[in-house]
């Protein structure tokens, strides 16, 4: 009897955990069209070009995410959770899959430090334009 109760609890716990992961996975992608663009300046235009060249293939147009990588508009990427140094580290060294199920992020080849700085400016400006902070 105890074993049956225990198994039932296990099933419920698994369902709850699974439900949570599914929610997270869905939140990891936003429709690019629904993302508000920040007010563009010449510097942000340059920054967007770097973002588009190096990050958009996985993190999506307008940081909206794709099936290969998460959207930066998810609260997980709020500056309080993932500060700018986390972005520098991810670009230079890649990142092990730990928040989602997209797999590991490889290090970004050939990107320079000034380009990484610009990319972060574009991501933060987009996050701000969409009320993340
Ligand atoms: C080949 C696909 C790919 C490209 C290109 C890519 N990323 Fe990622 N990135 C991922 C995936 C997948 C994750 C999620 C890892 C996880 O599960 O947490 C990720 C996670 C991250 C994280 C979170 C790391 C952490 O510590 O949790 C940051 C920051 C990030 N990417 C920044 C960038 C930036 C900036 C660029 C462009 C310069 C970029 N990524 C390009 C796939 C990519």
Protein architecture, described:
It is a single chain. With 133 residues, this protein is mainly alpha-helical. It has one domain (2-129): Orthogonal Bundle (Cytochrome Bc1 Complex, Chain D, domain 2). The chain has helices spanning 2-27, 42-54, 56-59, 84-93, 113-129. It is globular, with a radius of gyration of 18 Å. The model has no long low-confidence stretch (mean pLDDT 88). The structure holds heme C. Residues 54-55, 57-59, 68-70, 82, 86-87, 90-91, 95, 97-100, 102-103, 105-106, 108, 111, 119 line the site of heme C.
Q: Which H/E pattern describes the elements? A: HHHHH
Taking all Cα atoms into account, the compactness measure Rg is 18 Å
CATH homologous superfamily designation = Cytochrome c-like domain
Instruction: Provide mean pLDDT, rounded.
Output: 88
The CATH topology is: Cytochrome Bc1 Complex, Chain D, domain 2
Fraction of residues in helix: 40-55%
Q: Quaternary state, please? A: single chain
Can you summarize the main beta sheet? none
Second CATH tier, the architecture: Orthogonal Bundle
Structural class: mainly alpha
Bound molecules: heme C
Please identify the top-level CATH class: Mainly Alpha
Portion in beta strands: under 5%
Sum this structure up briefly.
The protein has 133 residues and is mainly alpha-helical. The chain has helices at 2-27, 42-54, 56-59, 84-93, 113-129.
Give the tags.
133 residues; Cytochrome Bc1 Complex, Chain D, domain 2; 0% strand; globular; binds heme C
